[in-house]
Amino acid sequence: MTHYRIAVIPGDGIGKEVIPAGIEVLQAVAAREGGFTFESETFDWGSDLYRATGRMMPEDGLETLRPFDAIYFGAVGDTDIPDHVTLWGLRLNICQSFDQYANVRPARLLPGIEGPLRRGHLDCVIVRENSEGEYAGQGGRSHRGLPEEVATEVSIFTRRGVERIMRYAFDLAMTRCKHLTVVTKSNAQRHGMVLWDEIAREVGRDYPGVEVRFELVDAMTTTFVLKPESIDVVVATNLHADILSDLASALSGSLGIGPTANLDPERRFPSMFEPIHGSAFDIMGKGIANPLGSFWTGALLLEHLGEAGAAARLMRAIERVTAAGGPFTPDLGGKATTGDVTQAVISALQADNE
Ligand code: NAD
Ligand code: MN
Known about the structure:
Elements: E1 2-11, H1 15-33, E2 36-42, H2 47-53, H3 61-65, E3 70-75, H4 83-97, E4 102-108, E5 123-129, E6 133-142, E7 150-156, H5 159-175, E8 179-184, H6 192-204, E9 211-216, H7 217-226, E10 233-236, H8 238-251, E11 259-263, E12 271-275, H9 292-305, H10 308-323, H11 338-351
Parallel strand pairs: 1-2, 1-3, 3-12, 5-10, 8-9, 8-10
Antiparallel strand pairs: 4-5, 4-11, 6-7, 11-12
């Protein structure tokens, strides 16, 4: 019997609603699948801790997380603390310290969910560079408050950083349709983005079977809306992929559906799994957050642990619920609560006799 230890950080807002629901579902998958068990330890890190101690996580938080097999994360962000403090204090701190450089975000129209597209088909994976680029945290401000104030936000692209995310994306493309869209803005951004295009061509030589398309990020937003069926694997920078993946999740029906894996592909550190949405100020505390994104995230976590059978079983249960027409939360046009959707997925798991 394999025994996994999962660190659970619900964080803020609806993270505190969808992550406990996700743990319930993961425990149900483990019970149904057999062969492995989960032990989860929950950490109450986030904005409440910040208000009490001035820190989003304890000083030794990274050491605490390090021995776990994976991290299951909700979201950060509250109305009374600047967003950059909550994000850098917890989520970005973990992603960057554990070198989780590949942020992988599938988006797909699940059966029974129409989404806003009404035509076309959406089944793609966005690979987001997750360690540098626009979120390198470099820059500064001078002449604060004066008319001549200047602020810089420096994007950093290193050959090592771009090359490793490109290889990850090409490898992933090999396991799917052998089609990769490389997204940049290399017409306007003539240094880092040109390096990105050059390295894509270099790495592409090692993958002659993969068809590569280069697309500018602004045009790419229109491709997502007008020709989603032409998209399979996409590789883009930290910022561009952040934006494109919210768009892709919305096109799949709701921001509440999209999952994320923050991977250290070399497995030196634990990887972190989270729904793509944030803490959702407008619906927090109402019990109506869509938990499907956190469940799908659970399936990515299972896949990472090597439990492919359990991951497939969980996706089957999610799709049985959506194909049957719900229950759906209000973001998908329904009236169900987070708890109703959770119970429906657990029932589907128990009824699955494959
Ligand atoms: P958001 O994702 O929290 O919400 C955007 C919209 O989508 C809201 O209308 C919200 O109600 C809806 N939505 C999101 N998830 C949903 C779900 N599961 N079910 C139903 N509806 C859902 O983005 P935002 O409003 O830009 O940000 C709010 C806060 O979250 C900010 O503090 C921001 O910094 C933070 N944030 C954190 C993360 C993270 O921790 N990974 C990611 C994005 C945003
Ligand atoms: Mn985002």
